[in-house]
């Protein structure tokens, strides 16, 4: 098998962080306190034992750094993404050596910039303020600019992962899958094989699936996606490949559905899963499955 780059987190890009965070709390998730990046974005996290959902907004547009020609800047990319729509803008994979990841992606013609190191403040459950730090390496394919992948290396993990943030009223246990709308084209296969290893990429009915070694990345044609996620799709979705849904495991689907019904969140049973449609969840569909 090729190098395991398991799922680390999804980036859910929204215009109003407070509104989105309130909705996630209605879904039964515990959220971390608001935190700020030095390049103008703020976030709150839904944290599990070793994966998380990052709910992100542009809070200080005047602080955004513009990319060099042919380059890439996290803040500018998400600002431009929000000009078109809300939704899942990026997928982060686990990294243990961001510098090596950037070299690997550059060799594949996918790296728009060197590895990027940064720090930000974080508040612990007891109220203490600490500094968390990361090294990011980006993989961007010119044919799918709305679906950016990157690796995320934690350099101060002892300050980041906290059990108090990982207990959720809905019984959620892990981020298990990220889903793109796309096709099993040679370009898509080549892109995924370059990141994960060709032996991890499998063709399935309606698209492709990747065993990342820590969660799945699935690519579905639009029709296959609509069959799996029959709720109304978000407006203004791009025609090019893009992230459209993610899946979280919960301990008990029945209890999760009771909670959603009690808080008035629109949700539907679909087979042995519960789904919240993209039109309700700020441009991305959420699927809950039982496990963990």
Q: What features would you describe in this structure?
A:
21% of the residues lie in helices and 35% in strands. A hairpin with an 8-residue loop joins strand 15 and strand 16 (285-290). It has 292 residues and is of the alpha+beta class. An 8-stranded mixed sheet has the order 2-3-4-1-5-8-7-6. An 8-stranded mixed sheet has the order 10-11-12-9-13-16-15-14. It has 2 domains: 7-165, Roll (2,3-Dihydroxybiphenyl 1,2-Dioxygenase, domain 1); 172-290, Roll (2,3-Dihydroxybiphenyl 1,2-Dioxygenase, domain 1). It contains 6 helices and 16 strands. It is globular, with a radius of gyration of 18 Å.
List the helices and strands and how they pair.
Blueprint: E1 7-13, H1 17-26, E2 35-36, E3 41-47, E4 52-58, H2 74-84, E5 87-94, H3 98-107, E6 116-123, E7 129-139, E8 148-154, E9 172-181, H4 186-196, E10 201-204, E11 207-211, E12 216-220, H5 222-228, E13 242-250, H6 253-263, E14 268-270, E15 273-276, E16 285-290
Parallel strand pairs: 1-4, 5-8, 9-12, 13-16
Antiparallel strand pairs: 1-5, 2-3, 3-4, 6-7, 7-8, 9-13, 10-11, 11-12, 14-15, 15-16
* CATH homology group of the largest domain: 2,3-Dihydroxybiphenyl 1,2-Dioxygenase, domain 1
**Estimated helix fraction:** 10-25%
| Uncertain stretches of 5 or more adjacent residues | none
Second rung of CATH, namely the architecture of the largest domain: Roll
């Amino acid at each position: 098998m090729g190098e395991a780059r398991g799922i680390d987190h999804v980036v859910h890009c929204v215009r109003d962080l407070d509104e989105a965070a309130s909705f996630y709390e209605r879904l039964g998730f515990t959220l971390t306190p608001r935190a700020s990046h030095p390049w103008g974005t703020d976030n709150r996290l839904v944290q599990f034992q070793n994966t998380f959902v990052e709910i992100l907004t542009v809070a200080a547009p005047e602080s955004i750094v513009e990319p060099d020609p042919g380059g890439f800047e996290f803040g500018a990319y998400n600002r431009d993404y929000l000009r078109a729509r809300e939704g899942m803008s990026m997928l982060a994979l686990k990294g243990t050596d961001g510098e090596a990841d950037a070299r690997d992606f550059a060799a594949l013609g996918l790296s728009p910039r060197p590895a990027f190191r940064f720090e930000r403040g974080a508040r612990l459950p007891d109220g203490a303020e600490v500094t968390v730090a990361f090294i990011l390496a980006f993989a961007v394919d010119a044919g799918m600019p709305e679906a950016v992948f990157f690796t995320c290396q934690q350099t101060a993990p002892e300050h980041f992962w906290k059990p108090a943030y990982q207990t959720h009223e809905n019984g959620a246990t892990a981020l298990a899958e990220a889903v793109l709308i796309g096709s099993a084209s040679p370009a898509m296969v080549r892109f995924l094989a370059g990141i994960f290893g060709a032996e991890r990429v499998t063709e399935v009915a309606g698209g492709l699936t990747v065993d990342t070694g820590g969660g799945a990345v699935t690519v579905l044609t639009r029709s296959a996606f609509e069959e799996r996620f029959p709720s109304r799709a978000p407006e203004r979705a791009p025609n090019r490949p893009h992230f459209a849904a993610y899946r979280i495991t919960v301990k008990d689907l029945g209890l999760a559905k009771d909670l959603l019904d009690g808080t008035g969140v629109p949700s539907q049973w679909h087979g042995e899963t519960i789904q919240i449609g993209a039109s309700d969840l700020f441009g991305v569909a959420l699927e809950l499955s039982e496990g963990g």
